[in-house]
Amino acid sequence: MARFFRRLQEGVFDEEDLRLRTDELAAFLAAAEQKYHVVPGSWLAIGFSNGANMASALLLRQPESMAGAVLLAAMVPFAADEPTDKALAGKRVLIVNGDHDPMATPAQTTRLTEQLRRRGADVQLLPFPGGHTIDPNQLPHIKQFIDAVRRS
């Protein structure tokens, strides 16, 4: 299936390619900010699975690119911890992972949450009793989060 970056096998990312694609996406966002007069770094990413992985990689690698993210079925993008500066201070992140997701496991959720919080992000968790899917019961909560980020 088409992805934003290569993977070596299911659940194992080609981290060199992920870094390259993350930097390309950051450059694209910066160009779009200039062309469309968007406030720099005001983007809120909303991604499912591979899109969530790309968004979390962007937060960790190019934190100035975004205001925050909604990560649905998200995994840890980089095996080694990224820097521990406070570059994500003031950024809001919602992680919506299923308790029975075989890929974005509870251990993945915990590690990703820790990585983001160590860098200063305000991370909220919205688990649900499901797998690698989007739970429609969570949509009102996701909307509330997005509305709150947009108001801030």
| Proportion of strand residues | 15-25%
Distance separating the two termini? 36 Å
Q: What is the count of structural domains?
A: 1
Q: Which CATH architecture?
A: 3-Layer(aba) Sandwich
The count of β-strands is 6
How large is the radius of gyration?
15 Å
Helix-strand topology string: EEHEHEEHEH
How is the quaternary structure best described?
single chain
Q: Quickly name the level 1 CATH class.
A: Alpha Beta
Tally of helical segments: 4
Walk across the major sheet and give the strand order: 3-4-5-6
Structural class of the helix and strand makeup? alpha/beta
Principal-axes shape call = globular
Under CATH, the homologous superfamily reads Alpha/Beta hydrolase fold, catalytic domain
Largest sheet: 4 strands, parallel
- What is the residue-mean pLDDT, rounded to a whole number? 90
State the helicity in percent bands.
Answer: 25-40%
CATH topology: Rossmann fold
Uncertain parts = none
Quick summary of this structure?
The protein has 4 helices and 6 strands. With 152 residues, the chain is α/β, with parallel strands linked by helices. The strands form 2 sheets. A 4-stranded parallel beta sheet has the order 3-4-5-6, sandwiched between helices. It has a two-stranded antiparallel ribbon with strand order 1-2.
